[in-house]
């Protein structure tokens, strides 16, 4: 009887472990999710105004960058939410760049309007200009 109970319990634990997400782990996000779209637009706006805490300093562009599409996205619950993005952007001359970025969002801080501790900020940003077009 104890052996049978152990087998049933072990199977239950294994099935739950397979279906559960790891606490603090990343999970895929829908690229059309409003939080993902807002984070992507935040990256584009920050890149256009050089408000990336120096992370977008070497990003060369002719005119303004525009979001072509969100290639992929994932989220991670931390003290807030990290939105990990892979974005395709193009400048006014049509030059395309793949931008990989992490946006840290803590919406409860928005009301405080504290520039030293903003509710939304870019914590990582890399970019790779494309020779051809991805789209």
TrEMBL record:
One term of GO molecular function: cysteine-type endopeptidase inhibitor activity
Gene3D superfamilies, per database record: 3.10.450.10
Signal peptide: 1-20
Annotated Cystatin domain residues: 21-120
Keyword check for Signal: yes
Keyword annotations from UniProtKB, A to Z: Protease inhibitor, Signal, Thiol protease inhibitor
InterPro entries for the chain: Cystatin-like, Cystatin_dom, Cystatin_sf
UniProt-recorded name of the protein: Cystatin domain-containing protein
Species whose genome carries this gene: Chlamydomonas incerta
Organism placement in taxonomy: Eukaryota, Viridiplantae, Chlorophyta, core chlorophytes, Chlorophyceae
């Amino acid at each position: 009887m104890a052996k049978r109970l152990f087998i049933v319990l072990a199977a239950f634990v294994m099935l739950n472990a397979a279906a559960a997400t790891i606490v603090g782990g990343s999970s895929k996000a829908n690229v059309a999710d409003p939080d993902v779209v807002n984070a992507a637009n935040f990256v584009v706006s920050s890149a256009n105004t050089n408000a990336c805490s120096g992370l977008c300093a070497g990003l060369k562009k002719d005119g303004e960058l525009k979001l072509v599409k969100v290639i992929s996205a994932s989220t991670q619950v931390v003290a807030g939410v990290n939105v990990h993005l892979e974005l395709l952007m193009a400048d006014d001359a049509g030059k395309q760049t793949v931008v990989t970025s992490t946006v840290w969002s803590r919406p409860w801080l928005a009301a405080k309007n504290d520039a030293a501790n903003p509710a939304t900020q870019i914590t990582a940003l890399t970019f790779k200009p494309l020779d051809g077009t991805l789209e």
